[in-house]
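User: Quick sanity check before I run a bigger batch. Here is a single chain. Can you write out its predicted 3D structure?
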Amino acid sequence: MSVNALIKESSPYLLQHAHNPVNWQAWNEASWEQARSENKPVLISIGYSACHWCHVMERESFEDKTVAEIMNEHFICIKVDREERPDVDQIYMSAVQLMTGHGGWPLNCFATPDGRPVYGGTYFPKEKWMNVLFNLADLWKNETNKVYEYAAQLTEGVKQSELITIKKEKAEILTETLLNSWQLWSARTDKAEGGPNKAPKFPLPNNYLFLLHLSQSELIPQKTREDIHAHVSLTLRKMAFGGIYDHLGGGFARYSTDTLWKVPHFEKMLYDNAQLVCLYSEAWLKKPDLLYKQVVFETLGFIQRELTSPEGIAYSALDADSEGVEGRYYVWTEEELRRICGDDFPLWSAYYSVNEEGLWEHSEYILLRREEEDELSKQFGITPDVLRTKINTLKTLLLEEREKRVRPGLDDKSLASWNGLLLQAYTQAYRSFREPRFLQAAKKTASFLLKSFSKPDSGLYHTYKHGKASINGFLEDYCFLMEGLFALYEITFEEEWLKNGADLCTYVINHFYDPESGFFFFTSSQDKPLIARKFELSDNVIPASNSSMAKCLFLYGHFLDRTDYIAMARRMLVQLQEEIAQYGAGYSNWGLLQLRMLEPLFEVAIVGKDVEEKRSRLQEHSISNVIFAGSSFPSSLPLLRDRHREGQTLVYVCREKSCFAPVSKVEDALKLLNTTYEA
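Assistant: Done. Predicted structure follows.
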């Protein structure tokens, strides 16, 4: 079987295309030099390993010899893994969105030999794809000047889309911004099934994390808080009951294709599941619910069982397809379920909707949890405990049976940014549930990232596979890890994590900061320039790297007494007040920072030999807007300096840099923390 240049790559997505008859090249200088020397237009085709429609277009077009001959004759064809090169994806996604009004993957963008975009789109059926190839080849041959003129205009449009309008007037950070945001947002919510009132439905965990915090804020009117909390609770319950959740193995699929959370697009991504663990863990801390705990433990179980390498670092994703069929690994026929469940099939059928509600296609069922346990236990004449025992036994049997099937493809590269999100998940899960193995996993993840992803200049690499790290780190790699290191310090009081985070913060300011706008570029100053250098401002399925960086500046600024960091975060947030008010769902991570800045900030410093016991007891409670510091020995950290008293364990509670007298009892510290809005 013939191979192309992608056989030398490590990305699973690129390797999937290594045996195509298309002469695919990787994104590198040699590929672009070939385009310039041969004076050929370039096809930049971007996707990722778990992308279903990427596989479809590959089967229909890229594996077809006739189509490949056309592509090879007229174009230099470059394949890009969007997860390896999110900077490249951002540029050409912007171009395609300017041309067509929408984007997605596979992303196919044609460019001049100097990289400027000319034409593009997403998935093309074979016949349409061939027409596009012929038309563009003809246009390049006969009207090259016209192609360059259009490319210049489109490139200018991409550059203009990155310009940030600096607000000259002194804007304020107001509670009304968040209220206005929710008012517009609530009109677009699904009152019956949770989430947005449209399909497809993405989990968007950062949205609900923000709303969860907003529903707890005393800055917001009581009725509004109740409405927000009701929406969050409904959404969390419906997602956990729906087909988007893997009821046997744990973990969530990337999105639901319908409004009911029923039919998932079956790929499972690390970034979704890490953030959803954070969300359900925090929801538990606000209001304990056994469903939330089940989701957290099962999802982390899935990550550790199916997405974690022997080294302890997490892989990126599981494919939607197995044996070339979407969802085959996850769905069941009634006959299979009857055979495995035996006499308990009626119970399983009622619990997981093996009926018209759960029926999908080809007489196969998606497992949906629709009935409450109390109702079902009465229906079957058993106690809720017996019901849960029976269901858990059947889940184990079915999972064992499922693992005999051909597994979905694994994207076995590891990304610093996504593992930074996982670090945050482990720390929050430990904070909520005190499960020792979550803390062990958090420390192992942090240690691996700091050791194996580190560059000689103290920066980070973006990706890691088979013992080798590569690709210069992007802003998201730094800020997601920095947030995770801060959270890990708060649950361990081990200062090495905080120091490493502070060092990364300094590195980012030196290599990513744009003093003119006050924001941070997505790419480092060390990276080879693309046709535009992008800022990432709006939150999506992953929080924007700038919103995460602003949160880091706020946290590290308060912790290290760096007022310049806090001022930088404030300047960033002030610029986006209009966007937050108009479209909160796209700026929810900014909304979390805004709550931090609006509410009084508590600083809790614990010093003395019993620091761990008092930290643990204090962090069992959901306390609004607090940062924790602690040490069993004298420390030079600003929040701990000169506070150690030999033979005593003291808790210092400060509010807005004004400190109460230290106390020795956790109960007294909690009383001080509950005076949040009192003088």
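The radius of gyration is 26 Å.

User: Great, the batch can go ahead then.
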